[in-house]
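Form 12-C: Joint structure prediction
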Amino acid sequence: MNDTSNARRKVAIICSHGGLDEAYPALILANAARQSDIDAFVFFTFWGLDVITEGKVDHLHVNLAGNPTSPMPTIVAGLPGMESLAASMMKKQMEDLELPSAREMLQIIDEAGAELYACELAMKMFKRTKAELLPQVKDVITAGDFYDLADGAQIIFT
Amino acid sequence: MNSDTTQLALLDRIDALQTQVAYLVERQRKQEELLAEMTPILREALGVATVRLDALEKQGWFAFGRELGEIAHKVVAHYSPDDVRQLGDATIAILDTVRALTQPAVLHIAAQAGGVLQKADSVEPVGMFGLMRASGDHDVQKGMAVMLELLRHVGRGAQALAQSQDPAALRKARLAAALGPKRRPLVAAPSAPKVQPAGCATGPSAPAPAAMVVNGVAFAADGHLADPTVWTRELAEKLAVSLGLQLDDVRWQLVDAARADWGQTGQSPNIRRLTQVTGVATKDIYALFPKAPGRTICKVAGIPKPAGCL
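Section 2 - Result
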């Protein structure tokens, strides 16, 4: 613990996918960074916007079709209902592991001091307003702004 | 005198030669007669033979023979004598299989299946739903049951095969048996030390190896107390000061809760667990212990660092 204020570690995490399985790595990495006294910035873009959208965060899905590591063959995974079945199964497993929900994870990492940002361009593309986003989102910024904020940080793309 | 005897000897030899020549001429004449007699017969025989061989050629016998030779060549090139020996060992099994497969009932099923395959053109294409509908059919269900049973046996067989030695190892073993016992290596290979899986918090009874000793207190390499049992409240105060903290009531509440939870579960609690057992908000925990609160609290509480990602 001999780090000084001018040599702080930083991570900039870019979350570009909105699947349940795709959101958690970004959220867990951000949380772990804060737990290890590393500054964390998370930039939600494209489908990642769903993770910080009020009406979507509790309904993130798991994409099994076309996923080579999913236990289900693509032809079955594409059937109606399979995808939500998989999502609910994964949520159940997460509950059993006492993993917080995505909404709760966002609250935790916000309270832990990680900064959450939404991508301006993606917001325009999806016609989403700041009012639709979760209160934990600090701002809607451009990619360039994000680079300025995360100056000197290690960048993680998920 | 001398020339006379030489002349006599020469005459003798010429005589002998003459008789021999006469014999040869006679033989030649007989052979010519024989040939003259045989020629029509041979011509006939040759004609017949040519026609026969041509017929065989046309039927593909020679091509077949050549190909057979090729196959034999390939087999010889492909299989080692060991493989052939194993084939010999397996002959009984092969014959058993053939007998089982050629039982009239089995052949009947195979013939029926073959009939269906021949009429494959006239079958309607089936989609996903067709497949589901067909699964309600009694015959299809029975067929699926048979196929599943077959698969089960194939799976079992594959497993057994994987467990048994592979041919290379078998050959090696045979070689080793032929060559006698292997020489023992001069230095015994060191056995891998038993490592506890990282990230798994060990129970209270497993102190970490001490990496440094400060004022008579041993610490692990990660800065946590090496032996949690030597912890006292005075030591906690000192540890907190060394980390730049003063322990007030809420901080003590968190440290005590962490230590109590570790005593109960054998695992150091993470921040989330601390918020659950104490009711202190995540935000406040980070405010009270700004640098890596989970680890700091556990350090002050004299317990190992928390495991897990949350």
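Section 3 - Comments
The two ends of chain A are 29 Å apart (CA to CA). Chain A has one domain: 10-157.
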